Amino acid sequence: MKRTFILVPLLALLMIGLLTSPLLAAAKKKDPLANWKTKFDYSKAEYTYILSNISHPVIQGVAVGYNIRDSLWKKSNGRIYVDYRPLAQLGGEKDVISKLKIGAVQGMLASSVASANISDKLGIVNLPYVVDTFDKLDQFRKDPALWGPFSNSAQAAGLMVPDITGYGQYGWATTTPVRTLADAKAVNFRIAQAPVNTDIYKAWDNKFTVLPWPDVPQALQTGVINGLDHTAIVCNITKKFTIAKYFTEVNYAQGLFLHLVNKRWFNKLPQDLQKIFIEVIEEESAKTRVLTRKQHVDQIAKAKEAGVEFFQLSAADKATLIAKAAPVYSKWGKKIDASYLAKVRSTLAD
Question: For the domain with range 42-347, which CATH number is right: 3.40.190.170, 3.90.180.10, 3.30.360.10, 3.40.228.10?
C-alpha cells in the first residue's frame, strides 16, 4: 500500500511534466515577428488589404509593409487596415501571384526575379548593368518616361505597380575567393528560379544550379553549390556568410521588391482612399530606398568585422560581363520592347 501511495503521486508528476514540457518549449520559442505586432484595434476597419512577402522584416525592403500598415491606418483615420504577412505565411511567390490575380490576396511585395513571370517588361530590372546602382534605381523611379511603362506593364494581368523597394546589390557569396572572372569558373552558383537569370549565366558561361531559396543552406553545407548569387544584405542577415566567407561585389543588378496591387480591389476603394493609399505607398517606399542604402553599407561593415573578405571585379572584367550579355539584351529586348530597353540603358548610362 505504501508503495502504491508513493507511485501514484510520482506518476502524476511525470504525466504533468510530459504534458507541460512541449507547452513550455513553445512558450520559450520567440515569435520572429514580435517586434512588429499591431498596436491598434483594427476590428472595425472598412477595408482590409492583405499584403504578402516571402522574407523577414529585419530587411528594410520588407519592413516597409509594416510602415505602410501604420501610416495608412493613421492617414485613413482607421478606414484601411493592412494585414501584412511576411515570411511566406501565404505561400511561395508563384502561389501568391496566382492568389493576387484572382483577388484572394490584394497586395504583394514580390521579388523582381519572380515579377518577370507577370510581365516581360518587369524583367528589365534584372538585366545586367541596367538598373544596377542605387543612384540608377532612384533615377529610374523618378523619371516618368522610364517608370511609367514599367509600372503599367502588369495591367494586363489585372495588377498595378505603385512603387518599388529593394534589398541591395547582387554579387557572389562563395566558399573560395573569386577575385576575377577566371576564378569564377571554379564555382557552381545557385541562381534564382527565373528565366532571365538562367539566360544571364548561360551567356556568362558560368556553372550554375537553379534552386529554391529554402534549399540553399543545405546545398551550401553539403557542397552541392559553392557560390550564391545574391546581395550582401541578405547573405549577412540570413547567415550565409558563416559558410560562404567571400563576397565578390559584382553589382550587376539591384535586388528589388515590386509592390503589386490587385487593380479590381483598388478600384472598389472610394476615390479619397485611393489617393491616400497610393500616397502612403509612395512615401514609405521612398523612405525605405534611403534606408536600404544605409543597410547595404552597414551589413557589409558587419560582415567584414566577422571576417568575410570582399572583392571587386576589375573594370576589364565588368566590361567582359557586359559584352557577353549581348545575347541577353537582344533576347529580352524583343520581349520587353527594344526601344524601351534602349531608352532605359541610354538614360541610365554611366
Answer: 3.40.190.170
Q: Is 72 exposed, middle or buried (0-12, 13-18, 19+ CB in 10 A)?
A: buried
Q: Which residues contact 336 (CB under 8 A, 6 or more apart)?
A: 120, 121, 123, 124
Q: How far is CA 330 from CA 57, 140, 341, 343, in A?
A: 37, 21, 10, 14
Name 154's Cβ contacts closer than 8 Å, sequence gap at least 6.
Answer: 115, 118, 119, 122, 160, 161, 260
Q: What percentage of the chain's residues is helix, strand, coil (to nearest 5)?
A: 55, 15, 30
Q: Given the DSSP bridges, would you call strands 227-231 and 107-111 parallel, antiparallel or unpaired?
A: unpaired
110 contacts 257 by C-beta, under 8 angstroms: yes
State how far the Cα of 128 lies from the Cα of 124, in Å rounded to an integer: 9
- Does residue 187 come out as left (phi exceeding 0), alpha (psi in the -120 to 50 range) or beta? beta
The answer on pLDDT for 19 being more than 50 is: no
Could you tell me the residue ranges of all domains in the chain? 42-347
Distance of CA 217 to the CA centre of its chain: 17
> Residues 126, 136: contact at Cβ < 8 Å?
no
* pLDDT of 304 higher than 50: yes
Query: How many CA atoms are closer than 13 Å to the CA of 146, on its beta-carbon side?
Result: 21
What pTM, to 2 d.p., does this model score? 0.89
Instruction: Write down the pLDDT at residue 5.
Output: 47
pLDDT digits (tens, 9 = 90+) for 214-233: 899 999 999 999 999 999 99
All three cell numbers of 188, joined, read 557552381
Give the tens place of pLDDT for each residue, 272-302: 999 999 999 999 999 999 999 999 999 999 9
